[in-house]
């Protein structure tokens, strides 16, 4: 082989090294997801949520926090829509129920805003502010629940229990990830 062929072979080896790189990285990042989720309160929820977004495989720990916050925003927003549809149906002749549901929709919308604000804090690496905003987001479902407790005649809908727990668990996971930053 002439020296130019050796050179081509050399280039080819470099190229194949790079070609192998992504495989190593992907496996490493699945490890990162699992390792990160182990330090949260809800390992299963954490892993399945993060793996549902392919960006997680290319993310560092802070990126995983950002993705989980996005999942929380979607969750809170879905509950606002659910409550709004409940408001439109069934309760036209029940002003108290309407009022309490409307308050709940507002609270879940504030939860979404707090989660949104935490994205800014993560971007500027002001992690204690991010932590506070996530704590606030996790607390808004309590404010909704308390609205029902104020009126013993009003049953707290089972569907809201599921949504309350769902959002709180997502926030717990985010807090666990922020603790690592
Ligand atoms: C994945 O996460 C990123 C970062 O939060 C977000 O921009 C993107 O919309 C998410 N993708 C899906 C499919 O939800
Ligand atoms: C989001 O909200 C729903 C409630 O409809 C809940 O069942 C679900 O587990 C929540 N969590 C995630 C990660 O989507």
TrEMBL record:
The keyword tRNA processing does not apply. Keywords: Disulfide bond, Signal. GO terms for molecular function: enzyme inhibitor activity. SUPFAM superfamilies: Plant invertase/pectin methylesterase inhibitor. Residues 1-20 form the signal peptide. Residues 28-177 form the Pectinesterase inhibitor domain. It holds the Pfam family PMEI. The keyword Ligase does not apply. CDD domains: PMEI_like (cd14859). Transmembrane segments: none annotated. Belongs to the PMEI family. PANTHER family: OS01G0111000 PROTEIN, OS02G0537100 PROTEIN. This is Cell wall / vacuolar inhibitor of fructosidase.
């Amino acid at each position: 082989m002439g020296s130019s062929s050796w050179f081509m072979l050399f280039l080819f080896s470099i190229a194949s090294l790079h070609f192998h790189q992504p495989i190593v990285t992907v496996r490493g990042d699945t490890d990162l997801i699992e390792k990160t989720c182990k330090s949260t309160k809800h390992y299963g929820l954490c892993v399945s949520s993060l793996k549902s977004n392919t960006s997680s495989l290319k993310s560092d720990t802070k990126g995983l926090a950002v993705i989980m916050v996005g999942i929380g925003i979607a969750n809170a927003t879905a509950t606002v829509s659910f409550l709004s549809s409940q408001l439109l149906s069934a309760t036209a002749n029940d002003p108290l129920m309407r009022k309490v549901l409307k308050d709940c929709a507002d609270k879940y919308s504030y939860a979404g805003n707090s989660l949104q604000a935490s994205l800014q804090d993560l971007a500027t690496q002001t992690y204690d502010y991010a932590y506070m905003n996530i704590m606030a987001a996790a607390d808004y479902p309590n404010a909704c629940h308390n609205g029902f407790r104020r009126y013993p005649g009003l049953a707290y809908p089972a569907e809201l229990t599921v949504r309350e727990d769902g959002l709180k668990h997502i926030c717990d996971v985010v807090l666990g990830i922020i603790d690592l930053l």
